[in-house]
Amino acid sequence: MAQKNDFQFSIREYRPSDEHGVMSLFRDGILENIYPAFFKALSHPDHIGVALSISMAGYVLGGSSYFQAVLFGSAWAGLIYYCCHEIYETYMLRRLSTDMANIQASYLDNPDNGFWVAEDSANDQSKVVGMVAVMGKKGGDENERCDDLNGGVMRGDAGDGSYGEMSCVVVAFPRRRKNLGLQLTQKALDFCKERGYTRLVLDISSPQTAAIALYQKLGFVQTASHSNTHANRWFSKLARINVMRMEKFI
User: Fold this and answer.
1) Fewer CB within 10 Å, N- or C-terminus of the chain?
2) Burial class for 27, CB neighbours closer than 10 Å (0-12, 13-18, 19+)
3) If we measure between CA atoms, which residue out of 163, 162, 178, 171 comes closest to residue 116?
4) Are 241 and 205 in contact (CB under 8 A)?
5) What one-character DSSP code corresponds to residue 65?
C-alpha cells in the first residue's frame, strides 16, 4: 500500500470485476486528448494563416459581413476538431474491439503479458484510478532498426530480442501529480525485467506532452516518429498529430 498526499492506492493485477471501471477510465483517458490536440493543431502557423484567409474570404463574399468571416473561420476550426476527434476515437474503438475486448484472454492468460490497475482504497471504497498493460513481443523485424536518435545507426537487441510493449497507461484526472503514473510505469519495467525482456517500448501521440516529459524523466528516449494513426491519412495531416515511439533499455 502506498500513500501520497492523503491518497491511498495499491497496484495489483486486473480482476474481471474491474472491467467496468477499466473500460470507463480507458475511454476517458483516450478521448481527453482531443482538446489538447485540437488547440495545438489550431495554433500552428499554417493553420492560423488558413483560418485568417478563410475568414477574410467570408468577409468579402458576405459583403463586408463580420458574421460570415466568423462563420467561415469557425468552419475551418470545426474541421480540425473533427480530425482530432476521429483520430482518437478510431484508436479507442480499435483497442476496444481487439485486446481490450477480453483482457483476461489477451493479457492474464499469457504469462508474457500483464495488466495492472491502481486501486484507490480511501474511505473504505475501492475504485480503479489507474492502469497499465504490457504485451510481450518477439524481436522479429525490430532486431535491427534505425534509431533516429543515433544518427541512423542500425542496432539490434541482445538475446532473442524479446521486449515489452506498454500501453493503456491512464491515471484518473483527480489522482494525477501524485506519482501514480510513475509507479505504474515502474510496475511495467519491473515486469519486463522479471520476464527477461531487453527493453520496454511504447507509442504515444505528440500532443501528450505531460506524459512524454514523464517518460523522458524515467529514461525513455524517442526512437521513431510517424503519422500513421490508423485514421484517414488526411486527418493526421490536418490534425498534425504524430505517433512517437519511445523506449528504455532494461
Assistant:
1) N
2) middle
3) 171
4) yes
5) -
Q: How far is CA 217 from CA 182, 211, 230, in A?
A: 9, 10, 29
Q: Cell for 22?
A: 477499466
User: Distance (Å, rounded) from C-alpha 222 to C-alpha 234?
Assistant: 24
Amino acid at 113: N
* 3-state SS class at 207: coil
CA–CA separation, 10 vs 122, rounded Å? 11
pTM score over 0.70: yes
Long-range contacts of 217-223 (CB under 8 A, 24+ apart): 218/182, 218/185, 218/186, 218/189, 218/248, 219/248, 220/246, 220/247, 220/248, 221/149, 221/246, 221/247, 221/248, 222/148, 222/149, 222/246, 223/145, 223/147, 223/148, 223/149, 223/247
Alpha-carbon separation of residue 5 from 55, 105, 129, 131, 178 (angstroms):
49, 36, 15, 20, 7
